[in-house]
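User: Fold this; tokens only.

Assistant: Input:
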Amino acid sequence: MYTQTEFEQVKSMLKKRWWITALPTVLIGIAAIVLFVVGRLERSSQMWMVTAALTVVAGVYFLFLYGVYVHPMHLYQKHIYYMLNGRKRETTGVLKSFAEDATDKEGLDCYALLVNIGERGDLEDDRLFYFDVHKQKPDMQPGTRVTVISNDTMVADIMLA
């Protein structure tokens, strides 16, 4: 389900997002330092306000873009890494349900997937997994016997048993 090529693409996107976030922040920070030094050399009593404003703008810009642009991609890169290289386990059972609505699982959008591993279908034998929203949903109906390969509760692959 996950490939090394996909990991490399996400890694490249993350690097691009870091540049888009960090470069303007550094440039605004350098401008603030230059204006501070110029203000001190000219003994300006108001240049510190411009320096403070630029510092606040740089900080807000960085924190906002990191939170909504960089961090989610970092989480997804880490997720793909775990799906490719992490310790996986295999669970075979009967598919009970596949959620239609996405939920948040550790910062990733996922569909909840319920598999019953028992012989009699008891509720205590239900196992909850999370399927990546960015992947094609498998065409499996409830009641189908499936094998789920997972890392923790995140699905790395799912196939008919």
